[in-house]
Each structure stands twice: as C-alpha cells, then as structure tokens.
C-alpha cells in the first residue's frame, strides 16, 4: 500500500460538525434491574402503583385523633387509652375511637379513625394510659398514600442515565426489569509492541492501556464496550479483526496505526473497505485520527498514545455516542453556587440534596420517606453542625452527581402534556414539580420557580390574573398559553351524558390547589345555582369528591381500573387512555414568568416555541393555541 502524508488537516470546527451528523440507531433490550446501572432508559417509566401504597407513619409514636390532643400541654397533659401496637409490616386491623391511641412504628400503616401521629418524645405511657404533652394537627407525621408517587405518574424520562438513585426509584415501584438502549462499541488495539496488563514486560514492549481506558470512557457515555484485544501490525490480522467488529458492533474504534509512519496502515484499510470522511484533525494532542464509514458502521481510528486517544475520544467520539443514545454529556465536579431560597438546618452535620438551576441552589428534599428526593437532586452540599440557617444569596459549594445535567428551567404548578412537548421542542431540560396551580403562584411569590404553570379560574370565569393581583406580584408577567378541553372521563359502560349524571357516582377529583379542581368546583357551583341549592349541598352528594389525584394520567388510570366511576380532566388524557369524554369547559393554561428572566436565552427559547406554528400543530387533541398564545400581560 502507498503511504499517505498529512497534506491538509481538517479544522476542529469542521470535524465537530462532521461527528454531529453521525448518528447510530441503538438497540433496545430489557435488563434485570440489578444489571441496569449505567445504561440509558429506552422509554418513559410510569408508576404502576402509588408510593407509598398506604397511609404510613413517618415517626415512632402514637396514632391518635388530632382533636384529642388540642388541649395538651406540659403542665396539663391529655390522657388517652392505649389499645394496641402496630409495628412496621403489620397487617392487623385497628380502629381508633375518641380518647384512644395505638402505639405505632415508623413505616407502619395508619389505622382507621386516625388522622395524626404524636411523636413518642411528646408522650409518656403508664400501663394502658398515654399522657400527651404536645398537640398535633391533622395529618401531622403521616405520609398519605400516593404522596410521593401517584399511580400513572411519570417518574423517569426516556434517555435518563440510570444510576443508584434511578435504581432506587424503579425498585420502589416494583420494577425488576428495565428497558434500556444498547449501543455496542468495539475496541481494537493495534501494535506489535503491545501486551496485556499482567503479562511480563519484555524489551521494547508496552502495556495496552487504550483498550481499558477507552472501554471505561464508553461506559461513562452510556455505551457498551466490546474489547477485541491486541492485533499485531499485520494487514491480514487487522482486516480480520475489523471485519468481525464491524459485523458485531454499532461503532468500531481502533487505536494506533493511524499516522503516516511506517507500519501505520489502519487508515488505509478503512479507506479501502469503506469511505474515509477525514484523516487528520488540526488539534493537539491527537492529530492522526481517521473517521470513516464501513457498511454504515462509523469506524474511527484513534491515535496510539493513550493521552491523545482519550483526548480525541472525548472531543469527537463521545458526542457520537451521546447523540445516538439521545443523552446529554455527564459530568462530576464541585461548583460554587448561591442559595435561591433559605434553608433551616436541624443543628447537625447534613449532606443536603439540592437542585441547581443556572447557578442557584434549591432544596430537593421532600421528606425522609420520599424516594423521589434522590431523582430530583443534582448534587449535595454539606451543612455543618453549627449552621442553623443559610440565607438566600449565600454562596455554597455543591458536589454534583456524576450522571446528571442541571436543569435549564425550574417549573412549578399544574401538570399538562403541553409542558412535555415544550421541553422536547426547546431542547431544554426542565425541572418540573407538578404540585398544582396554587403551589405555582406560591413558588413565584417566594422566588423559587422560573415559571409557574397555572390554570386557576375565579368566580367570574377569568384565569390567573385575579390571583396575581390579589397576591400583589408585581415582579412577574403573565404569558398566555393555550386552551384545553376539560370534562368528564368515564368508561363506555357508564351512561353519562352530563354533569348531573355523576351525582350518585364514585368520582376521583384532582388535588387541592390544582386549577382543574377549582374549575370543577366552579362547574358544580353553576349546576347547584341552576337547581336552587347550595354548592356544598351538591358536593355532599358526590362520593370521593375530596380525593386528590396529582395528574390527569392517574385520574384516567383510576377510571380505567374500575376504582371509580368518573373523573374530571383533560380530553387529551382521556383519549390517550382510550376512555369516553364529555367536554364541560375550556380552561386557559398560562405561564407566570419572572420579569428579570424574560431576556435570558432559555426563556426566549421557551417563548419562541410556545408561539410557533409547529408547537400548535403537535399539541394533542383537545389542546389548542389561540390568538392570545404567547402574549405578555404585565399589569393585573
């Protein structure tokens, strides 16, 4: 073969553009959960159950009726009768009546009749008598079923890299198998001077470092390395190894034999068998790199020098793997950021989970019983024992987790499939807390969120502006979003033709503070007014009206499973679930955005997509933009 000289090197910019256009379709395989760490999730993971699945105690203490403790004090404790004990895992049934209490362990199920748990530190037991020294309020020290995760809720997104936190979240919903993407990357180390680590080092020999360093780098990117071993500088042996790797892998990497020196022939083999896209890049270290295609398999010859090989891998190979798997580059580092909100410490050393959004730190902690604390965190920072309170704006050092990318925008408020579409089309990463419209307004008031997602209707049928006016939020704007059909969701065997038909049926409602619940309240009020009765009287006739589902999907799931007769929610969710739908109203789903963020790139991108024709076309049935979409209202 004729030797090739480096006459014209490819610029770094052109080489980057070249690899950006190389994308390989990964395979999808199902792995046992214990083998899934480091892989990329192939599809959205939805919870098949509530977490926790039952109302549970989060403290050791006594299950009581809160009203029995309201008069309790240190000088005059309230006396209750202890009727039993409930350890964690207990399946026995208990009913607690007025003046009674049951001893309960952390994680144990809450018995019937109970609405609070008083901590053991606030009590003293003598025989069957319990003396309570501190009052508790309703729901204190109780985690309600579905508080952490609601059935049907998306807990992990497609293309998420699986780490210990994701494993914990999936295990908590009972998953034992995980659909993952698999991208096989073959590694061939060439050079007659190479020997395997562990063998005796002879004269003129060196250990093969590239096979193992590159394999580790592939795993860090989410790929699956296949090491084909060392191949001597012989053309026939190189061709055989390359043919085998091409037939078995999605991408093939070689190291060594890529320069223009004597014995360096890999680049010529690649050129003969396929197409050479570039040979030689104007970068140091790592100039003698060859990028080609053989049988539609990207084949990249890396330099033999380990430092150069890893430099080229990180710069030009890793992007191909990331693009093919649909993930963002991971990193692990310490950063200095400022607190976006205050945090009060318990007076002890603490590793505190936090989210980081554009240099601001926010708590990711829910409660000690919430598994999603882990998946919502970007990193941790250490709180020293003497620190009682960390002020907003104070600098902290955060140790970032290695397999996360900090979100671009923090969204708090109502849940909607339109938000998922906005995230997909903007290419941004959202940290989305689906807590209802009221929580969105509160988050904006406290300066915690970048965007509040809201659909809160007032008595006159106006959306969101009256709440902003009442809260006197003058540092925000209201960006009009889109309209959504809301109505009754049911199975075909339930003969429902309008709101009146649900009076004696079992209903599932949305969570308190959600705009959808407020909309149903308004519709029930109008129906009651037409019948000449009070709204409260009307609501009393609805079984399950005080329930609270966090998402439209979980409403549909409850209907589809037969747990309830009817739900209230989006047409888009009903059609996705294959359920019947009767429209009752059209709400307005808007976005509250801080004024000081309006000109940043992320918000401008968000607004541009919201106003785009493509976004309007991609919205699911029952959700539509209108003439006000994207308009900004700054006075209320």
From TrEMBL:
Annotated GO CC locations: cytoplasm
GO molecular function terms listed in the Swiss-Prot or TrEMBL record: molybdopterin molybdotransferase activity
Keyword line: Molybdenum cofactor biosynthesis
TM helices/strands, residue ranges: none
Pathway(s) this gene product operates in, as recorded in its UniProt entry: Cofactor biosynthesis; molybdopterin biosynthesis
Keyword Ribosomal protein on entry: no
Pfam family, one: MoCF_biosynth
SMART domains: MoCF_biosynth
Alphabetical list of InterPro entries matching this protein: MoaB/Mog-like_dom_sf, MoaB/Mog_dom, MoCF_biosynth_CS, MoeA-like, MoeA_C_domain_IV, MoeA_C_domain_IV_sf, MoeA_linker/N, MoeA_linker/N_sf
GO biological process: Mo-molybdopterin cofactor biosynthetic process
Name listed for the protein in its UniProt record: Molybdopterin biosynthesis protein
Superkingdom, taxonomy of origin: Archaea
Gene3D superfamilies attached to this UniProt entry: MoaB/Mog-like domain, MoeA, C-terminal, domain IV, Molybdopterin biosynthesis moea protein, domain 2, Molybdopterin biosynthesis moea protein, domain 3
